[in-house]
Structure of Arabinan endo-1,5-alpha-L-arabinosidase:
Amino acid sequence: MMKCAFLMGVLSLNGVQAQNSWQRVPRVHDPSTVVRERGDAWCFTTGNGIGVLKQDGKEWSFAGTVFPQDEMPAWHRELVPGNEGHLWAPDVIESKHGWWLYYSVSTFGKNQSAIGLASRRHLGAGTDEEPWKDEGVVITSGSGDRFNAIDPAVIETGNELWMSFGSFWDGIQLVELDRETGLRKHPDRPSYSLANAPEIEAPFIHEESGWYYLFVNWGKCCRGVDSTYEIRVGRSKKITGPYLDQDGTPMTQGGGSLVLGTRGRYIGPGHASILEKSRRQWLVHHYYDGEDRGRSKLRLLPLVWKEGWPVVEDA
C-alpha cells in the first residue's frame, strides 16, 4: 500500500549471494516483482507517476516514471477525485505482446479506489520512443463495496492469469484476468475471498512444489519506526483457496503464519515478492530503517523452504 516517495539509489543483485554484499535503495516503497528483459532487471515502486528502477548488470538506478505528471490518464481523477498522481503498489508481468503493469489509484483511508493497467512492448525503450499505454481500469471499489481495489499482484499459472488484491475492509480478493487483454475475464462474477484480518493488505501468490502460497501483510505501514507491518503466509492446493496457515487455521478466519517481522533496525517489513536468481530464491520487500529516521528501503533476504513452508534467513 502507498505512500512514500522514493529517491534514487543502488542495489547490487550480482552480489546477493554474498552476505551483506548488496546496498539498499533508499525511499523505496511497495516494490513490484523484479523482472528481467535483455539482461537488465526492473522494479517498479509507489510514487508520483510510478517510480521505475533499473539494474544494468551491477547497480540499480532511477529510470524515470511510468506516467509523466502532465500525462496521467484522465480516468484517475474521474474515478478517484482526491488522487493527484501518487500511484501505489505496482506489479508487472510479461504478456504475449510485451509487458503489463498493474497499479493502484486511491487516497489514504478510503476504498474509493481503482486498479489500472498500462502496457509497453519493451521495458528498455526510452520514454520518448515508446510511452506506456493506458489500457484502462481493471476493477474499482467504492463505499458500497466490501473490498478495497488496491495492491494488485498478478500470477500466471498454467493457461490462466489471476490477480490478487485488497487492503483492510474484507481483506484479500482474487479475480481471473483475460490473457489477451489483461483485464477481468469475468467482470460480472464476484471475486474470491482469500484472507481476512483486522489489518491486512499487500497480497502476493507464489507457486511452489504443487502448492500456492499466499503472502500478505498484517499491521500498519507508512509510520516510519512506528510501523507494525509483518509478512504472513498460508498455502492451498488451489489458487482460489482455501489457504491455511501452519496450524490449519483458514486465512479467511484470521490465519497466517509469520514469515518475517521486525528484526532490529529492519522495522515493519512488507509488500513481499520472490526473486529467483542463481538457483536461489530471495524475498524482496521494503522495510523502515530504524537507524535512518524510519526511511523506507528495499531489502532482499535469502528464502528457503523447510517442511513445505517459507523460511527467511538473515542476510
